[in-house]
Amino acid sequence: MRALEVAELAPHHGGCALVDRPVPVPGPGEVRVRVRAAAVNFPDLLMTNGGYQLKPELPFTPGLEFAGEVEALGEGVADWAVGDAVVGGNRFGAMAEAITVPARALRRKPERLSWEEAAAYGVAYLTAYVSLVRCGRVAAGEWVLVHGAAGGVGLATVDLAKALGARVIAAASSAAKREAIAELYAPDAVIAAEPGFRDTVKALTGGGGADVIFDPVGGDVFDESTRCIAFDGRLLVVGFASGRIPEVPANIPLIKGFSVVGVRAGEYGRRFPQRGAENLAAIDALAAEGRIRPHVHAVLDLADWRAGFAMLERREAVGKVVLRP
Length: 325
Fold this sequence. Notes:
It comes from Sphingopyxis indica. By secondary structure, the chain is an alpha/beta fold. Helices cover 32% and strands 27% of the residues.
C-alpha cells in the first residue's frame, strides 16, 4: 500500500517520502480501515520535524484523522462489520491507503458528509465544541469573536457558534479570506485581523465587547483582545500561531472581570473520558442533522502531499485540506 513515511526528522519535511508498505494486519481488538480521505492538520506538519509534543518512533506515517471503510477485523471485534463507513482519529498513521486502529477509535460516518468532509470535521469541530461549550459556556445571543477564522479550526468555530445561536464576529487576515467566510457561513460581521480591531468589536457589540473570544493566534492579538472582552467574558487560549506566547497582568482580568481559559480538546477527553465521549457524540449528531457544514478547501492525491502541507504553511487554506490515499 502507499503511505507517506517520515524516516527522519528534518526541516521542510525533508525526511518524508511516499513509500510502499505491507498492508497492516489488525490484531486483537483492532480494525483495518481502507482510508478514503485523510485531513491535513498542523500537528502532522510539526511531527515531521520533531516540533510537536508527540514524537512517534521512526519511521512513522503522519495523519490524525481519516474517513474510510472497514476492511478487516481483528479477533474479538463485534461492533463493526466489513464495509462499514467510519470516521476515526489516531495520533498518527492516517496518510496511507490503510490504517489499523483500536475498534474504539472509530465512529459511524454521518451519511450527509462526503468522504472528504467526514475526514475533515472531527479534530476541528471537536476543538470548537470543547472551546465554545465546555470552556466558553457560550449561550445563545452572546457575542463570539473568532480569531484565525479562515483556518480549519477557526472556520469550524464560526460554523458551530452560529449553530449554537451566538452572534459571531469572524476575524481574518486577507480580504479574500473574509469574503470566503462571509459567503460560506454569513457570520454577523467579518472584520480585518489588524491592530485596532478592538474598536470595531466594541462598536459591533454596542460597547460591551465580546462575551467569548476564541484565540489561536496569541501575541498582539491576545493583548488587544483583553481590551475588547465583555465583563464576565471568557478569553479562550487555543494556540500561538503568531509565535509569541503572551502574558497578561493579573489586574486586567480582575478589573475587567473576565476569565482566561486554556483549551486542549484532546487532553480534555483523556482527562474526562465520559465528557470526551459526549463531545464526540455531540459533533456527530450536529453533522448528522446538517446543523454544521465542514468546508474542504482542497482535495489532493496523496502523491501531492507536499502541496497540501504548503497550503497550511502559507496559511492560504480556508477550511481544511484533505488527501486521497
